[in-house]
Amino acid sequence: MPAFDLLVAGEINPDLILSGDVEPAFGQVEKLVEAAALTIGSSSAIFACGAARLGLRVAFVGLCGDDVFGRFMLEAMQQRGVDTRSVIVRSGEQTGLSVILNRGADRAILTYPGLIPALQSEDVPDSLLRQARHLHVASYFLQTSLQPGLPGLFSRARALGLTTSLDTNWDPSGSWRGLEDLWPHTNVFLPNAAECLAIVNPSILVVGADGVRPDSLRPDAVELAARKLAARVDVLAVKLGAQGALGLQGAANLTRVASIPVQVVDTVGAGDSFDAGFIFGYLSGWELEKCLRLGVVCGALSTQAAGGVAGQPALAQALEFLP
């Protein structure tokens, strides 16, 4: 039995979350906000913490600086049960940082990359892969140094008996390129509705100053895009926010599950918590519908506290909401 259920290869950065009336006013205008919190950030780290909270044995490989933000992240991840011994600490370089302007159900994000793009496939040796059952990668479009070698990394992992999962997150460039070589080596793909549409056909989305317009996320268009993506991977799970999730596996019929009602405080990291729940079910050998149900429960419960990790449920808490 490998030492770890899950190896996460990803970015490391804290989130500084400002909540309330967070729309800036330039011209040297000072505004007061309701709350501020420095918390675990990055999709990869939030996912890792969510998986560990559910009881999986999780190891993390990534890069951070020998600075305040790097030390904060390593200590906070360790406290949440994530093994960080494979993290590479670089003196003289800076850990990334995201400033999140949070308005409850919506947010804007300002990110200083720092070492976020620096991880390479060579930083994940076979000796580390052999210690895990599954390899997860998130933030594909931010991890630019990892992109060229990721198909090879996934291929190495599969050859060593691991399964793989990918959550690309949003592509700031809008190009959505570079994924074709990854599909043959990806077991589970975990986009949200907008990402699903954009990967299949970027022109179908209407993106304005306030983000993707909801009317461009038509259910029929999302379902059609999902069916196209499902032909490229073993399992597809598409996050639909408050509407729940849908999934496809092989030639099976499309499966939809609803979310659960919650009082939303902060949606930061909800998708990563969904991923953690889904992958827990996947590694447990559950059927697709049950994996989706645990995913939506974990995602929904995570929104009840500020930050990406404070609201993440333990397995017993999440299972209370499953039929």
Layout: helices, strands, pairs:
Layout: E1 4-9, E2 14-19, E3 35-40, H1 43-53, E4 58-61, E5 63-65, H2 68-79, E6 82-83, E7 88-90, E8 97-102, E9 107-112, H3 126-129, E10 132-138, H4 150-159, E11 163-167, E12 188-189, H5 193-200, E13 207-208, E14 211-212, H6 219-230, E15 235-239, E16 245-249, E17 255-257, H7 270-283, H8 288-302, H9 315-319
Parallel strand pairs: 1-4, 1-10, 2-8, 4-6, 5-7, 10-11, 11-12, 12-15
Antiparallel strand pairs: 2-3, 8-9, 13-14, 15-16, 16-17
Helix pairs in contact: 1-7, 5-6, 7-8
Please supply descriptive tags for the structure shown above:
323 residues, 9-stranded mixed β-sheet, 4-stranded mixed β-sheet, 9 helices, 17 strands, globular
Verbal overview:
- The protein has 323 residues and is α/β, with parallel strands linked by helices.
- 28% of the residues lie in helices and 23% in strands.
- The strands form 4 sheets. A 9-stranded mixed beta sheet has the order 6-4-1-10-11-12-15-16-17, sandwiched between helices. A 4-stranded mixed beta sheet has the order 3-2-8-9, with helices on one face. Strands 5-7 form a two-stranded parallel ribbon.
- The chain is globular, with a radius of gyration of 18 Å.
